[in-house]
Write a structure and sequence with these properties.
Layout (H helix, E strand, L loop, with lengths): L2 H20 L5 H14 L12 H8 L3 H6 L2 H10 L7 H64 L10
Helix pairs in contact: 1-2, 1-5, 2-3
């Protein structure tokens, strides 16, 4: 067993022992709930996907959720899950990591989409400027052609404006 598994087992067993001292007669349902919770916390589910949820604890223990919530063990389980030294099963940690990575990927896609929109806007502005400059260039070339024609047709070397 790893160090974190040992700590988790100690936290779970400590909670069970405390509950047994406080509540003299733990029922069979209470023991099944604690056994199911311990299996989930150690990452050894038999029936479920391994998440530490009330539904999975109930499925592992073979009881209804109503029985689970009526049991004094439910409060102890909530307390154990809220303690920072209780190590979650690796599956839960991996799910949290997946959720974090999905969120980061979504943020990156959003940033990329915004950057692409900005670049497309810049490209459109440049295309408009190129079109304006092309039209102006064509106009100036036409003026230059007309000036060359007048110059070649003119007898005198005096250049007169076009307009």
């Amino acid at each position: 067993m790893t160090d974190s598994t040992d700590k988790t087992l100690q936290v779970v067993q400590g909670a069970v022992a405390r509950l047994a001292r406080e509540k003299r007669g733990l029922s069979d349902i209470d023991r099944r709930i604690m056994r199911a919770f311990e299996q989930l916390m150690l990452g050894r589910p038999e029936i479920t996907d391994g998440r530490t949820s009330a539904v999975n604890i109930c499925a592992e223990a073979g009881i209804s959720r109503a029985s689970y919530y009526r049991s004094p063990v439910a409060a102890v389980i909530k307390e154990v899950l809220d303690t920072p030294e209780a190590k979650r099963p690796e599956a839960d940690e991996l799910r949290q990591e997946i959720a974090r990575l999905k969120k980061a990927a979504q943020e990156l896609r959003s940033e990329k989409a915004a950057e692409i929109r900005e670049l497309r806007s810049t490209v459109a502005a440049y295309a408009n400027q190129i079109q304006v400059l092309t039209l102006r260039n064509a106009e100036l070339e036409g003026d230059a052609r007309k000036l060359r024609q007048r110059l070649s047709q003119a007898d005198d070397t005096v250049v007169r404006p076009l307009r």
